Amino acid sequence: MKFFIDTANLAQIKEAQDLGVLDGVTTNPSLMAKEGISGEKNVLAHYRAICEIVNGDVSAEVISTDFEGMVREGEALAALDEKIVVKIPMVKDGVKALKYFSDKGIKTNCTLIFSAGQALLAAKAGATYVSPFIGRLDDISTDGLGLIDSIRVIFDNYGFDTEILAASVRHPMHIIECAQIGADVMTGPLSAIEALLKHPLTDIGLAKFLADHAKSNS
Ligand code: E4P
Q: Which of 10, 51, 142, 205 is most buried by its number of CB atoms within 10 A?
């Protein structure tokens, strides 16, 4: 399973990249706003800066919700760097835009997926990735991981190339269960990725090894 980091924070992207396990980055307008990035020039420059850090796909989301606007924005984003994946919301014109970019060989990530039907439609339109938001479904007492499972079955039934990018990942158990189900990619915060490192028995064991070593070398 590929690991993407879900942030526009350059320091966190660099930290995940330095860990050696990063396969890509996802951003969204809220994450860009959180970093104080605004204005077309600054937004494009920030995507360029992300592409310089990471070796892998970088999802950059369009703001337009009409077909022409999505095409205009998506083409400008895709021209920035070959790592850019145009992130398109799951709306009617978005499906048309997915097909347009797919026909042109431009990678896409269909975002705001909350049902298997939406994922199927995006895959049929040629999306490179679909992003089901598991954390937000969990937030409303709906089975986010169950959605990943349903999409996995559907995509495998028909051999779709579209990759399942489990999004809105909140904690390490989401990552582990996504890997068990067979999501192709997960995107989450640095905290969820780093939480995979931790186990109290590792800490206790290491402290004992170091204490024993110190004793026998004193
Ligand atoms: C997906 O690409 C989104 O950026 C993201 O995963 C949304 O996560 P959130 O529900 O934590 O905002």
A: 51
